[in-house]
Amino acid sequence: MTLTDPVLSIIIPTFNEAPNVLELVRQVSEAVDGLDAEIVFVDDSTDNTPEIITAVSVGASLPVRMIHRDDPVGGLSGAVQDGIRSSTATWCLVMDGDLQHPPSMVPVLLETAQASGADVVVASRYTRGGASSGLSNVVRQAVSSVSTTVTRAMFPVRLADCTDPMTGFFVVRRDAVDLSRLRPRGFKILLEILARHRLSVVEVPFVFGRRFAGRSKASLTQGVRFFAQLASLRFGRMSRFAVIGGIGAAVNIAIVAGLTRAGVGYMWAAIVAAELTIVMNFLLQERFVFRDLRHEGRGTWHRFAQSFGFNNVETAIRLPFLALLVSTGHLAAAPATAVTLLVAFVVRFTFHARVVYRPRASRRSRRAQADVLPALEERR
């Protein structure tokens, strides 16, 4: 780092955000007044956004530069990666170009990072004091919440201190990220960074606002890319969970077959088989799926009670739903069973990872959040 290098690079990936640029630069400049900062637009636009950025940069009160990508590899995540690569600052802050991430939070994130010594400070919608009210409708809020829950279930250790790995608003120590390890795609660059590195994380709450202008870029295609990203990042723990589930299903069938041949009624045989395989699956999960999380402060019997109770409740709900799909949904029994088992698999895995074996947040994360909340309240 030289004497001319900024302390903070504010990296803003843009795609057709022309109506937002002037107001965004104005609010960011006002928020970081007195800080040694720069704005870096990484632009993939097909409209006049690059011309607007160039014009606004002339009169800006802090340095504004632009990287325009004619070949936008990796989508938004690739843009952020290119922005970090271009920076010589100590800290890189990532935010959206539509003002849903309030510029007033920029100094809060930087101050928290410098004070806490963490590698990453995340602006979270889902920690105490945060909110996702700026999402356009209830469906988008529900999709965001469910996606976040499933993602944290898939990475219980790396995301133990991060309640909002899907956010695009965070600051990271530039030297803490090995850019060559990233495989960017779609929107979720923070997830990519946290899943591929062992980084210390601290959170501050923020309220996700509404777009200043323009339209959201979220789409079904982005959703597909997100699930592809999850699959590429982690199938280890979930795949072991799936294998054990498959073994349990085979054992369940074998027990039912054996008991019915011995003269036991089908329903009693099914109940006995279900209970035995629930116990067997728990023991196998303890040994092969969640072994590294058994030290998180919950006793074996407590974990067993949670697992046993949830699986029985899930089964009691799933079977009537299966009957409903067959009787009123006009689905054949086999595909209806497949649908319910697939949903049950995701629900069971998420419950076990997020409840039964939930990792505890680090003391530093809890302490930093406790310190920052009063300051945020004063700013409001």
Can you name the CATH architecture of the largest domain? Alpha-Beta Complex
Ends apart, CA distance between termini: 35 Å
- The helix count comes to 12
> In angstroms, what is the radius of gyration?
24 Å
Q: Strands across the major sheet, in which order?
A: 3-2-1-4-6-5-7
Kindly give the count of domains: 2
- Name of the CATH class of the largest domain: Alpha Beta
Strand proportion, as a percent range, falls in 5-15%
Shape: elongated
Give the SSE order as H and E letters: EHEHEHEHEHEHEHHHHHH
Largest sheet: 7 strands, mixed
Average per-residue pLDDT, rounded, comes to 82
The SS-based structural class is alpha/beta
Taking pLDDT < 50 over at least 5 consecutive residues as the criterion, the unreliable ranges are none
Roughly what percent helix?
Answer: 40-55%
Total DSSP E strands: 7
Instruction: Predict the CATH topology of the largest domain.
Output: Spore Coat Polysaccharide Biosynthesis Protein SpsA, Chain A
